[in-house]
Amino acid sequence: MNIEFYFKKTCALIGLASYLFAISMAVTAAEDSVDNPRVIIKTTDGDIVIELYAEKSPVTVENFLQYVDAGYYNNTVFHRVISNFMIQGGGFSTEMKEKPTRDPIINESSNKLHNTRGTLAMARTSDPDSATAQFFINQRSNLRLDWTPGNEGYAVFGEVVEGMQVVDIIALTETGATSVETSRGPAVFQDVPVTPIVLLSVSRMAP
């Protein structure tokens, strides 16, 4: 009788613990959702809503939001578009003039977030800690861009939650080569949309 009593008591306690754990996880998930800011990118091809990973990529998200709040991305273009790969923007005006930026930030790719379809990541040069304002949206999963031992990778800091069809439309646009004057001198950019795809505005969404 005692064994049966303690068995039932133990089962009840396990059940209660599981219930409390489930509640805790639900509350945590809700808090994470509330804490993650959202940004809407209004383009000439439609709207894209991004949720930012503030906890996993704090430096990158803060940097991105500073540019957003300053109106930096308004009337810039997606200047590099490669179908079945990604779309990149955030650094050039509609006249393909490079915009000045703040200092580069550290590369947070060691957060080990994956460059899967729909994620937002920072563009950079061969220097891992050279990202400033430019970003790209992965149109497909590009896991070769992830952090791995000996490979710094590209820092993921957000994800498309609405408007992925707009990303797909942009990725199919006709592109060509364009001569551009950059801060590092003249350069020929490949994969530039023939008809400019403009980021009309980039702004925070209300919580």
Architecture overview:
This protein is α+β, with helices and mostly antiparallel strands. It has two domains: 1-35; 36-204, Cyclophilin (Beta Barrel), CATH 2.40.100. Helices cover 26% and strands 32% of the residues. The chain contains three helices and ten strands; from the N terminus they run H-E-E-H-E-E-E-E-E-H-E-E-E. The protein has helices spanning 2-35, 58-69, 164-171; strands spanning 38-43, 46-52, 76-82, 86-93, 119-122, 135-138, 156-162, 175-182, 185-193, 198-204. The strands form two sheets. An eight-stranded antiparallel β-barrel has the order 1-2-7-5-6-4-3-10. It has a two-stranded antiparallel sheet with strand order 8-9. A hairpin with a 2-residue loop joins strand 8 and strand 9 (185-193). The longest helix is centred in the N-terminal third of the chain and has 34 residues, at 2-35. 31% of the residues are buried. Mean pLDDT is 88; it is low at 16-33.
Gist of the model:
With 207 residues, the protein is an alpha+beta fold. The chain has helices spanning 2-35, 58-69, 164-171; strands spanning 38-43, 46-52, 76-82, 86-93, 119-122, 135-138, 156-162, 175-182, 185-193, 198-204.
Q: Spatial order of the strands in the main sheet?
A: 1-2-7-5-6-4-3-10
Number of helical segments with 4 or more residues: 3
Helix content: 25-40%
Rounded average pLDDT: 88
Calculate Rg over CA atoms: 22 Å
The string of secondary-structure elements, in order, is: HEEHEEEEEHEEE
| CATH architectural group of the largest domain | Beta Barrel
Q: What is the level 1 CATH name of the largest domain?
A: Mainly Beta
Detail the poorly predicted runs.
16-33
Going by CATH, what is the homologous superfamily of the largest domain?
Cyclophilin-like
Strand percentage: 25-35%
Largest sheet: 8 strands, antiparallel, barrel
In total, how many domains does the architecture comprise? 2
CATH third-tier fold name of the largest domain: Cyclophilin
Quickly give the structural class: alpha+beta
Number of strands: 10
Oligomer: single chain
Shape: globular
